[in-house]
């Protein structure tokens, strides 16, 4: 199956996701009482196995927060930060005195809250613009290497990953991470059809 987007579809997706990041940044700014800037400079499409390698394979430890989107098309939305950068996020949430040598239960909760805000902003923006009916699962926190995080229960060759690179800046911290939207072929095709319908509607208005 051809998973390549047209240039216009890709630009539309990047714009939609940047709108979502703007909403997430506003919510996080209120939470940490500091200006937070979030942007998505690039969107790439690939298979799930390739995405795991691009993110660092088995050599890189990461923290992830996953939410499952179900409805007219489905996706696993996964926010991924390098483990050391995730602990910097904890410090922002809980204060400078936090021990950064490990992730405790309260720190997991803080990271999960950050993930919930970012993923909900992305998902909410997409579903509102594409005018669909969807449900979203509760966020799930996980630590591991990139292969473990990206490992799926179904055939990886039949899953498409939309990989978004995130730039996250607040105070003295500059943190880069990723959001991965993992879809099966049918869901991906439905998603692209919705994007194209949105583009055509916008061009007529």
TrEMBL record:
The keyword Ribosomal protein does not apply. One of its GO terms (biological process) is chemotaxis. The keyword Hydrolase applies. Gene3D superfamilies: CheC-like. It is an enzyme of class 3 (hydrolase). Its EC number is 3.-.-.-. It comes from the Bacteria. Keywords: Chemotaxis, Hydrolase. GO terms for molecular function: hydrolase activity. SUPFAM superfamilies: CheC-like. This is CheY-P phosphatase CheC.
């Amino acid at each position: 199956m051809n998973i390549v987007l047209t240039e216009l579809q890709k630009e539309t997706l990047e714009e939609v996701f940047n709108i979502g990041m703007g909403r997430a940044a506003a919510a996080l700014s209120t939470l940490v009482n500091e200006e937070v800037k979030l942007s998505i400079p690039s969107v790439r499409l690939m298979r799930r196995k390739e995405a795991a390698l691009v993110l660092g394979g088995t050599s890189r430890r990461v923290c992830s927060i996953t939410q499952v989107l179900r409805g007219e098309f489905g996706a696993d939305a996964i926010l991924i930060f390098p483990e050391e950068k995730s602990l910097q996020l904890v410090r922002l949430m809980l204060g400078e005195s936090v021990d950064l040598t490990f992730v405790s239960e309260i720190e997991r909760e803080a990271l999960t809250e950050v993930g919930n805000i970012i993923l909900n902003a992305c998902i909410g923006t997409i579903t509102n613009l594409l005018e669909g009916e969807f449900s979203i699962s509760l966020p799930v926190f996980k630590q591991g290497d990139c292969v473990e995080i990206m490992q799926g229960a179904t055939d990886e060759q039949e899953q498409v990953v939309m990989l978004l690179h995130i730039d996250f800046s607040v105070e003295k911290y500059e943190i880069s991470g990723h959001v991965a939207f993992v879809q099966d072929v049918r869901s991906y095709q439905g998603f692209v059809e919705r994007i194209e319908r949105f583009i055509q509607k916008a061009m007529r208005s």
